Structure formats: C-alpha cells, structure tokens
Amino acid sequence: MKIRVALRMMEIQRVLVRHGLDEFVRETHLWRPLRFIFLLSPWTWFERSKQAPRSVRLRLALEELGPIFVKFGQAVSTRRDLLPLDIADELAKLQDAVPPFPGAEARALIETALGESVTKLFRDFDEAPLAAASIAQVHAATMLDGTDVVVKVLRPGMHEVITRDLEVMHELARIAWHNSATARRLRVTEIVRDYEKTILDELDLMREAANASQLRRNFAGDDSLYVPAVFWDLCRVNVMVMERIRGVPISDMARLRELGANIPLLAENGVKIFFTQVFRHNFFHADMHPGNIFVLVDDPARPRYAAVDFGIVGTLDARDQQYLAENFLAVFERDYHRVATLHLESGWVPANTRVDEMESAIRTVCEPIFNKPLKEISFGQILLRLFAISRRFNMEIQPQLVLLQKTLLNVEGLGRQLYDELDIWKTATPILREWMRDRVSGATVIESLRTQLPEVLDAVRALPPLLKGAVQQAQDGTLRLRVEAANIDSLEQTIRDTNRRRDGITIAAALLLGAIIWQAVGAQPAWAGWVLGALGVLQLIRTWWRS
C-alpha cells in the first residue's frame, strides 16, 4: 500500500473514532487496534459527548474528510435501496460548499490555460468568486464585446487529491468487502467504481462544455428551458467560459411570488422538461438540485427555467427507455403483473424469480399509495417502496438507472416545493403515452429503415463473395464449421463419466449374476461363486467411488 494512502486511511480512522463511528472501524477491520490510540484523545471524547444521532455523526465526518467524501456522500444518498433511510436522508443534506481559493491564483490558472493575460481576454474580470464548490469555482467576467459571462476554473491540485482519495476509497471498499457481510450486501466495490466514473468526468470541463452545448441544441426553439451558450475558444480541460445567467434561484420562493411568476406552470414545466430529456432526447441533466436551477421571469406569466453546471448528465439505451416507460405506465394502471414481467424481461431481477411472488410484493407496497388522490401520489415514494422489495428478489444494481432515480427525486421534490398541488402523474403520463405511440408509428419505422439502409446495403454487397467462397469450399471438401460452446468441455467430461459409470455397473451386474447362477446350479468348486460375487461387489464400490 502506498504511504500516502496509508496515512490518509489513518486520518479517516481518526475522524471516524472522534465522531463515535467505531462500528465502521470494527465492521471493516480498518486497523482496529489503532482506534484505542485515538480514543485516548480528549478532543475525541469532547466530540463524542455530544451524542448526536448516527446519521448526523456520519454526515459531519464526511464533511470533515473533505470535498471528495462530501460528493461521495451526496452520490450514495440517492441509493435508498441500499442505505438505511435515516442515513440516506441525512447524507442528502451534505453541502458542496467550501471556502474559495484566492482569486489571484484563479487568474493565473486561467492565463496559463488560455495562453493570454486576463486583461486581453476580458474587458472585466472579478477576482472575487461568484460561487465556490469542491471541484471548481466560478468568477464573473465581461467579454470584450460587452457580453456577461462566467469563468469556471478547476481548483488547483484537484487531480492529485481525487486520485489519492479514490485509491483510498477502493482500498476501504476492498477491506470492507472481505470482512463485512453488510458491505458485501451493499456492494461497496460497485458503488465506488460508479462514483469514480462520475467524479473523473467532472474534472474535464471540456466534457461539461460539450454537455451544455448538446442540451442547448436539444431545447432550441423550446422556451421552457434556457441553456447558456458556451464560448468554445475560451474552453480548456480546466477552464470553461459560458454565458452568465441572471435569474432568480429556484429556492427563492418569496422573490418568485413577489415578481408574480406563474408558479403552477413552472412546477408543471419542470416535470415536462425532465421526461422530455429522458424519453425524447435521451440526454438529461442529472444534477438538478436547487443550486443549479434558476428562473427567468422577464415574462412572469410564462417563467422559464435556466440550468447551470452540466458536469453530470445521463443517457439510457433504447431497451431501458422502453422498459422504464412501460413500468411507469403499468404502475399507474396498477398492472402489477406487467411490472413484475417487465423486471424479468429487462434482466433487472434473476431469471428464476417467480412472477407471481414479485407481483404480490409490488401490489403490497403500491396499493396503499393508490388509495390517495392522484395529486398526492409521489413517483419518488413509489420508487422508495419498490427499493424496499429489491433486496428480497436480489434485484441487480442498474448503474444506468441510478442517475435517473436521483434526478427524478430531485425534480419531483422541486415541483412539489413550488406547487404542492402538482399532479405529477397527470403531467407525465401524456408524454409517456405519446412517446410510446411514436415508437411504433409509421413515420418512426420508415425513419429507422432509412437510417439503417446504408448498413443493410453494405451487408448485401458483402454477401455474394462470402456465399461464393463457401460454395467453393463445400465443393472442394474444405468447408469447416466451427462450433463453440462455453460448456462444451464440461459436457464432454459428463458424457465420459456417464459412459464409465454405465460400463462399471454392467461389469458388476455380470459378475453378480454369474455368482448367483454358479451357486444355483451347484457348480464346483463352490468357492469360485463366492469369488465372482466378491468381485461384483468390489466393482460396484469402485464405480460408486469414481463417480
């Protein structure tokens, strides 16, 4: 183990012990004897005397461990199918706010990345950051033509810090996996792998700029969501320049009401935007917490959303889209048999799962919810109830759906916060039904055929030479068909074992039959019959032993 990783793990253990989280040290075998050293510290006992709930102590420990652990806590807080609810609720409160680094340092990083002085690139540049987060911070600036922009710059040394802490997380997950049944059930190694992909993507601001451009293009001509323009000439891996958004934070309800914004329309549009991104565009903003959403109220009767921070986006393959839409509609129609069948067809649960048992479990968790008025039924609540039965049926983690689940919970939470009368089912169902109809419409089928026609023609053109070669080989007697099977060796061994067992039993039966006949006819010498019988018994024993 690298020295830097070992030192960091000692620091983690010290923080865990100081916050009274000894059970995590014991459960993972994280150098357990060392915890007694940390327990001797007066500061440790001062902290432990506060006796906060376990979930609160865990949140405080993650905040003390630094930005990477904060973001990890935020990520796993959405996995309510794996975590106790008290911990999931508390981790959702983690704030990604840290002290800013000096503006002069940000200026130097920008100038190094862009190869020009800030005074030549911008008319104005504010060294005091607009916002600071764990990965990057944002500065206001004005382009030479007067356009207001924001400049996002990665924190210095972030690659080194993240690389080290990812190594630590993988090591902790490995230790926990080997020493804790709970850790194996929670699939900690898979969680860390998924998190690693997300956090590494956030370190590339060129990727974020590309995500923003794609989202802006998807909503061109749609006034429900505004996405700021990217200034590509001023974007690098660690620097990104975008149009500045001047809107009202979505969480500032008092200001929105003061401006006369149409709140019900705003809440409804939020749901429509989400489902449009997921099903029509198959490209969705997956970090839609209140800090990343603003409202433009230049026309209060038709307020518009404006999004920022595009580091995390999600996509689904066509099969998952189809199954997800059908699942939502089947739940809405209380067709629990269809929901269970869809889970089997999609491969989300093991193939040996009994449909009737899963149908019964889904009915049990959903029926109490549907006794409420539709406007009081929550997608998020249904998801959480379904998570509760996922362990019973060994439902596999679907990494491609984790971001979707998180985003859906965020969107519904925002919508209900804006307008508690929001009927998310009424808003979402027409979008889902229309998308399903479009999937099988004649226009869609024709477009699919048109798109795939070049590939079909290429295959047709390649076919005659292949057929001609196969016919020639068949005529020459050189045609060979290779058959591969994953278990062919095992099958051959089974056949050999069966034949050997059959032959052994046949020989034993012949010897025993000969012994019986010998004795029956009174052949001499008499002892020869006993010898035949003994040989038959020995052959049976030998056959049984080898099998």
Would you write up a description of this structure?
The protein has 547 residues and is an alpha+beta fold. The chain has 5 domains: 3-95 and 168-188, no CATH class; 97-167 and 189-244, Phosphorylase Kinase, domain 1 (2-Layer Sandwich); 258-440, no CATH class; 444-481, no CATH class; 488-546. It has helices spanning 3-18, 22-28, 35-39, 42-48, 54-65, 67-76, 85-91, 103-114, 118-121, 158-179, 181-186, 188-202, 205-218, 253-258, 263-281, 318-332, 336-346, 355-366, 379-390, 399-418, 424-439, 442-476, 488-521, 527-546, and strands at 122-125, 131-132, 136-143, 148-154, 225-226, 239-243, 248-249, 284-285, 293-296, 304-307, 313-314. α5 (54-65) runs parallel beside α7 (85-91) and α16 packs antiparallel against α17. It is elongated, with a radius of gyration of 33 Å. The two termini are 46 Å apart.
Record the SSE blueprint.
Blueprint: H1 3-18, H2 22-28, H3 35-39, H4 42-48, H5 54-65, H6 67-76, H7 85-91, H8 103-114, H9 118-121, E1 122-125, E2 131-132, E3 136-143, E4 148-154, H10 158-179, H11 181-186, H12 188-202, H13 205-218, E5 225-226, E6 239-243, E7 248-249, H14 253-258, H15 263-281, E8 284-285, E9 293-296, E10 304-307, E11 313-314, H16 318-332, H17 336-346, H18 355-366, H19 379-390, H20 399-418, H21 424-439, H22 442-476, H23 488-521, H24 527-546
Parallel strand pairs: 5-10
Antiparallel strand pairs: 1-3, 2-3, 3-4, 4-6, 7-9, 8-11, 9-10
Helix pairs in contact: 1-5, 1-10, 5-6, 5-7, 6-12, 10-12, 15-20, 15-21, 16-17, 16-21, 17-18, 18-19, 23-24
